[in-house]
Amino acid sequence: MLDTLDVANLVALHVLLEERHVTRAARRLGITQSSMSHRLARLRGVFDDPLLVSSARGLQLTPHAQSVAAPLAQALRAFDAIVAPQKSFDPGTTAYTLSIALPDALAPLAPRLIAAFAVDAPRFGLRLMPVVPALPEALAMGEPVLALAPLGLVSDRIMTRALGEVRFGVVGRQQHPAFRTKLTTKAWLAYGHVVVRLGNQQTNTIDVALARQGLRRRVGLEVPSFLSGLFALPSSDLLMNGPMQLLDEAAAQLHLTVREAPVRLPRVRISLCWHRRFHEDAAHKWARERVLNVVGPALRGQR
Prior knowledge:
alpha/beta; D-Maltodextrin-Binding Protein, domain 2; 3 domains; nine-stranded mixed beta sheet; two-stranded antiparallel ribbon; rod-shaped
């Protein structure tokens, strides 16, 4: 039946069933009475039912017309919602949940991201998530909708914007013996190191860099997250590697000191990543520009 009826005829049927009057239905649709009469005749043929019959009280719906009236009205409302223009986006009033995947070492960015949305987008909710190995597939599914990740984890199906790079330094408690003078390689490697193990099989980039220089660090503590490692430092002589540009807040609150590493450590390029299907979404566009404006300067060491 759908092959024989277009939307215009379905709308005409809906209006006829509501008005129960050919002339009023024609006036409502802005067509002539003759045209509406022709449409009613066609509809009667397609449905093999009179649909509307004359009575002393005017046109009355047949039982079949009564059975289709409510489902037809509901279907047309749904169709109208589908083809309606997108609602305008206002960050000040629109409710939106923004899910962002970010590496564990970038967790110190959370306060800056929260602050960036709190004033201009009070109804935005943030959901911070770990970066999973199958990141392109996760972005395609829309959970998360944005990711801060090394370029090596994404494919050509994913859109990216360069943010900057993570530069690793050495973190330890204030008054740490290794920090009494300029930090040397010998002093750095003399103490146990806090190492984050995320439960995957990825090789630690710092261990690889040290091995290339014929060096090896002693693991004093393994932790499941970067932040849990930071909290182990104030009461011990353990040392830890962390992103120098992002540690100011944590170092001040936990009474830590951040120093340049005594050897050359790898730098990790970070990009903002999202799937193409979200590229033109108004809320997504606004949100990712806000994230760019926060994370880019942070990775460049700017406040």
